[in-house]
């Protein structure tokens, strides 16, 4: 699985051309990715046929802040537009998961609604949690959660690699049923060790943009990742 951050329909088209499997749709990368408009989602949805996970985040950081009601309204509007995959995550002041906020927002977007329930990713808030294992176990029964986007550390994959490998060994145990999707300072040279450990989902943003965040997604850059991921998994 190769997920690429998109901000616009142009990004989405290039990501699909390069071989992305899924998009994470955001706005305002200066704040590390906030909720896009309903109109942007509709335009992206019309431009490509890839699955699109929509960011639900109103401000920089991982607290709900004062805009949570507005965020719920935006989430409901996106859901009514047809969005059924989301990315979210909130922490309380003590570094634990804000379970009330997560539950409320997932209910707004239809997680737990049966066969057509929305699916969602808990994003890199886990990398700033006081207790990663405890967070996972508290979220384990929330409907729709199928992915953790994580670098293993707030400082990125270079620092978090040992944590990622250790968590991969626990796949399928209580609290570790959701897939690990690695992102956050991810480079091509990280892939052999991660893939050998059984991790098979990867998330890129800046790596898909040779000109930085001021430039669009480049299909050739995405294609380089696609080529590497289509190669045989290295033997541990």
UniProtKB/TrEMBL annotation:
This is Copper homeostasis protein cutC homolog. SUPFAM superfamilies: CutC-like. Pfam families: CutC. Gene3D superfamilies: Copper homeostasis (CutC) domain. It comes from Streptomyces rhizosphaericus. Belongs to the CutC family.
């Amino acid at each position: 699985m190769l997920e690429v951050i998109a901000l616009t329909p142009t990004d989405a088209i290039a990501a699909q051309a390069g071989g992305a499997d899924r998009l994470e749709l955001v706005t305002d990368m200066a704040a590390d990715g906030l909720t896009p408009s309903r109109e942007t989602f509709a335009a992206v949805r019309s431009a490509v046929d890839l699955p699109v996970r929509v960011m639900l985040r109103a401000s920089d950081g991982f607290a709900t802040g004062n805009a949570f009601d507005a965020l719920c309204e935006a989430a409901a509007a996106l859901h009514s537009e047809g969005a059924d995959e989301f990315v979210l995550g909130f922490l309380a002041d003590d570094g634990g998961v804000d379970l009330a906020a997560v539950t409320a927002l997932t209910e707004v977007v239809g997680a737990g609604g049966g066969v057509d329930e929305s699916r969602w990713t808990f994003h890199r808030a886990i990398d700033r949690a006081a207790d990663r294992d405890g967070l996972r176990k508290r979220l384990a029964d929330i409907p729709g959660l199928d992915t953790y986007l994580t670098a293993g550390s707030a400082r990125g994959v270079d620092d978090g690699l040992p944590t990622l490998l250790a968590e991969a060994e626990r796949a399928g145990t209580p609290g570790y049923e959701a897939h690990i999707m690695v992102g956050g300072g991810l480079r091509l040279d990280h892939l052999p060790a991660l893939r050998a450990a059984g991790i098979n989902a990867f998330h890129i943003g800046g790596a898909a943009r040779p000109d930085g965040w001021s430039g669009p997604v480049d299909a050739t850059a995405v294609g380089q990742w696609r080529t590497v991921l289509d190669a045989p998994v290295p033997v541990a």
